[in-house]
Amino acid sequence: MKNAAIFIFLVLPLLSQAQTIVSEKPLIKEGVGFFDKETYSLRQEGFPYQMEVYRERSKGFWFKSNRTNTVSIVIDFENTVGLKASVPLPFVSDFRPGVHHLFEFTSSPRHCSFSFYYTEGIVNPKLSRHTYVLPVPDGKSVTLTSSNLKTEEPFVTPIKYHDGISTFYGVEFEVKDSFTITAVRGGKVEYVEDKLPGGEMKNRLRIVHLDGSFADYLGFDQQGINVKTGDKILAGQPLGTVDINRKLFLSIGYQTLEVDRKLPYNEWLKTVFINPSFRTKESKKPWRVGESYTSSQPAALITQEMSKRQRKKYLSGRN
User: Fold this and answer.
1) Partners of 166 in the beta sheet?
2) Are 203 and 218 contacting, i.e. CB atoms less than 8 angstroms apart?
3) CA–CA separation, 268 and 274 (whole Å)
4) Burial 14-32, CB ≥16 within 10 A → b, else e
5) How many other C-beta atoms can be found within 10 angstroms of the C-beta atom of residue 120?
6) Do 234 and 207 touch, CB atoms closer than 8 A?
7) d(CA 215, CA 220)
8) In degrees, to the nearest 5, what angle opens at C-alpha 162 toward C-alphas 158 and 168?
9) C-beta of residue 254 within 8 angstroms of C-beta of residue 213
10) How far apart are CA 189 and CA 228, in angstroms?
């Protein structure tokens, strides 16, 4: 291991080093449902046509989704006296498109009502320890110009988007010897915005990772993003070109959802930003603002989340 030039800057995930804010994604209340114990009927109000919650007498509660993306739902019962179910209530979980059995009642009152909420994406994911690559091609360098993740009173960076101002926690890199921005981790492109004038870190994309976390990349040139929504991405894969400032803002986080009736429901959903661990070619070099680091993208790091079959195919393509 004498020639190993690997350094992991921070530990992921350490929630003591994470920052939490109310989520930028909304939790949407779509209506109230009612059922009667004798007739087992369910009346629905306001449910979107792509989703449906319903009850069958012998099979309990079901959820049907025709949406293309994963959605997370909350079923919160208003009157719970005498109500018992096969799972803890209120019910919170995420689902892919299709029909899903949720739970059954072991006892229920004569009449009962519930509220139904949903949001896009996965909530409360089980995070895996992961090492990221720097957001530039192998052998290229970046300079860490800003980081607000480790301090107790983090610097809040407002980033102007087409839909207003959002608050993010993360790191900012100056791209030194490459215009190309690459993925720090594999996943699926959730959205792309690359039509805004460059120079103010406006153009962005989000990649959702296998464990439900996500990475936001900001600072692409206008129409400089060369991937599209729905694309599957590998770590180290080129995403686009940086804007004239040559700076990239990167934040990595995930969604949490907890029903707290003391708060308005739109505050139940939160985004937690975490400290990523990066691998570089420098050995034992501390993570400091103003320091430069060189990207290291060994095959073992690129393939760490692949199946055996995917890994074999990827490695055969590199030879």
Assistant:
1) 159
2) yes
3) 19
4) eeebbbeeebbeebeebee
5) 17
6) no
7) 14
8) 25
9) yes
10) 7
Nearest partner of 247 among 133, 159, 185, judged by Cα: 159
Q: Are strands 278-279 and 132-133 parallel, antiparallel or unpaired?
A: parallel
Residue found under tokens 């530039």? 136
**Residues 225 and 243 sit within 8 Å (Cβ to Cβ):** no
* pLDDT tens readout for residues 257-314: 999 989 999 899 988 888 788 889 987 788 788 889 999 999 988 888 888 888 888 8
Bridge-based pairing of strands 98-103 and 187-193 is unpaired
Cα angle 155, 271, 254 (rounded to 5 degrees) comes to: 115
Q: Cα dihedral sign for 142, 144, 146, 147? A: positive
Residues in Cβ contact with 84 at an 8 Å cutoff, skipping those fewer than 6 apart: 105, 106, 107, 108
CA nearest to 74, candidates 49, 102, 55: 102
The residue assigned the tokens 């996965």 is: 122
pLDDT tens, 189-222? Answer: 998 988 777 666 678 899 999 999 999 999 999 8
Kindly report the CA angle at 168 between 200 and 170, in degrees rounded to 5? 90
Query: Is there a contact between 183 and 130 (Cβ–Cβ < 8 Å)?
Result: no
pLDDT tens, 108-150? 766 778 888 999 889 999 887 788 999 999 999 999 887 765 5
Q: 3-class SS at 315?
A: helix
Distance of CA 294 to the CA centre of its chain: 26
For tokens 């915005």, name the residue: 193
Determine the Cα–Cα distance for residues 54 and 91; give it in Å rounded to an integer. Answer: 14
Q: What is the pLDDT of residues 1-15, one digit of tens each?
A: 444 444 434 333 333
- DSSP letter for 268, please: S
